[in-house]
Write a structure and sequence with these properties.
about 475 residues; Heat Shock Protein 90; ATP-binding; five-stranded mixed sheet; 12 helices; 8 strands; Sig_transdc_His_kin-like_C; protein kinase activator activity; alpha/beta
Length: about 475
């Protein structure tokens, strides 16, 4: 819906907030779960070295238990990586983040168990060595375990918590110092991880913005190329249809000259003059439609939304169609919020098209109330019992110079611009014209307009369509 044509009492639907933030969080999680096989292999080999060192100096059984834990979490991470539910939704993203945090916590807790399993209470030097090893693991984890801040912060905490708790429990000066250093390291690493994540998110945001701008530029280029191709086709078809009446006028003028020179009888001259008049009318009609299309595309006529009474407008259009073939069925109080002039032009072209392709039968202009998410609306339908349109041709009828079943380009049946004008006006009004049709069963063109707000001054005057 064109925002200009939204009723003043209607509240606009809120724009989805945080869409950029959502895209950044999705990208951060993708980076966090991507395979890192070589890094895992190097880390596992280093862990094996640590286990071998403490098996030699302290306890083989404890070292085997610890390296067994490391082996299990390494296999889990390396051979059973987390699979992401693409495409993300807010709910699936939150669930994937929680699962990633859990897996990361298990990974680091297994490493942190070295602070319990490999802790030798009788050797202060080995205690200090173990503390240094775990602090080194902490620095390594900060840059390799995850890019998701909560997961990384939890991982660092679980990695150092066992040795900190053990140190506090032992109470020796050396281990108290290790515990204090561990606590300080956790605080420092939390801040470092948060800052690193902020910078990463900024870089991802810039990259996503660049990608969006690039896609918009490509889309604009494609749209420009398509518009250029459509413009060339438009002028080619216009040139063809303009030449027909111009040539007819020239030929009939020559015939008229010869008839006048030879003293032809009045009926022959009248026939020639009638042919000239028909050609002139066809030329004038085509020229007016081309000028109208030009005014629409140039947005010469600004939209002036107001409350428009539908019944008087439809009744006037039915009278103008003549022959009593156009009926109206509309609630007396129906009023839509739209631009009166543009609505009249849309309906006039739809009625003209319906009458033109309904050699027998009637045309009905019907209005009925609708309830939409954005408020009450009116559905306007132009129904005919004419020749109908095949399903494969229904998308083409709104194209410029498209005439189904008029391959000979008989200008008495129009130029194929009426529905093209409807398409352009509908785009300006922010509405979509739907079509239901079948050969031999007639056609129904329909669209919806928002209802005028309660208390709005209803316009009953019917401004004439502006001349093309």
């Amino acid at each position: 819906m064109n925002p200009i044509l939204v009723p003043p009492a209607a509240s606009a639907a809120p724009i989805a907030a945080g869409s950029d933030r959502f895209a950044i969080e999705c990208e951060v999680l993708r980076l966090s779960v991507r395979p890192i096989g070589p890094v895992l292999l190097v880390q596992y080999l280093l862990n094996c070295g640590v286990a071998a060192l403490f098996a030699w100096q302290y306890s083989l059984a404890r070292a085997l238990v610890w390296i067994g834990l490391i082996t299990m979490v390494t296999v889990l991470r390396g051979f059973f990586p987390q699979r992401l539910p693409e495409p993300f939704t807010p709910a699936t993203l939150r669930a994937a983040q929680r699962l990633h945090t859990l897996r990361t916590g298990i990974w680091e807790l297994a490493h942190g168990m070295a602070g319990v399993l490999l802790f030798n209470p009788g050797r202060a030097d080995q205690q200090l060595l173990l503390g240094l090893i775990l602090m080194g693991m902490t620095l390594s984890s900060a840059f390799s375990v995850s890019f998701y801040t909560p997961a990384t912060q939890l991982a660092i905490t679980l990695l150092l918590a066992p040795v900190i708790v053990t140190g506090l429990w032992m109470g020796s000066p050396e281990m108290m110092a290790v515990a204090a250093i561990g606590i300080g390291l956790i605080a420092m690493m939390w801040k470092l991880v948060a800052e690193r994540s902020r910078q990463l998110e900024e870089n991802i945001g810039l990259r996503l913005n660049e990608r969006t701008l690039r896609e918009q530029a490509l889309a604009g280029l494609r749209a420009s190329e398509q518009a250029q191709a459509e413009r060339l086709r438009f002028f080619s078809a216009a040139n063809h249809d303009l030449r027909q009446p111009v040539m007819a006028i020239g030929l009939q003028a020559e015939v008229l000259r010869q008839q006048l020179e030879s003293g032809a009888d009045t009926p022959a001259v009248q026939h020639t003059v009638a042919s000239l008049a028909r050609a002139q009318q066809a030329l004038e009609g085509l020229t007016n439609q081309l000028l109208e299309i030009g005014r629409i595309e140039a947005a010469v006529d600004p939209l002036r939304p107001e409350a428009v009474a539908l019944a008087p407008l439809l009744q006037e259009l039915a009278r103008q169609a003549g022959n009593g073939r156009v009926g109206v069925r509309c609630p007396a109080g129906a009023a839509a919020w739209t631009d009166t002039v543009s609505l009249r032009r849309v309906l006039a072209n739809l009625v003209d098209n319906a009458v033109k392709f309904t050699p027998r039968g009637r045309v009905l202009l019907a209005v009925r109330a609708r309830r939409r998410e954005d408020g009450p609306a009116w559905r306007i339908e132009v129904r005919d019992s004419g020749i109908g349109i095949p399903a494969e041709a229904q998308e083409r009828v709104f194209n410029d110079f498209e005439q189904i079943g008029n391959v000979e380009r008989n200008l008495q049946r129009g130029h194929g611009l009426g529905l093209a004008i409807v398409r352009r006006l509908a785009a300006q009004l922010g509405i979509e014209v739907a079509l239901r049709s079948a050969p031999g069963r007639g056609s129904v063109f329909s669209f919806e307009l928002p209802a005028a707000p309660d208390g709005a001054a209803v316009t009953r005057a019917l401004p004439s369509p502006q001349a093309g």
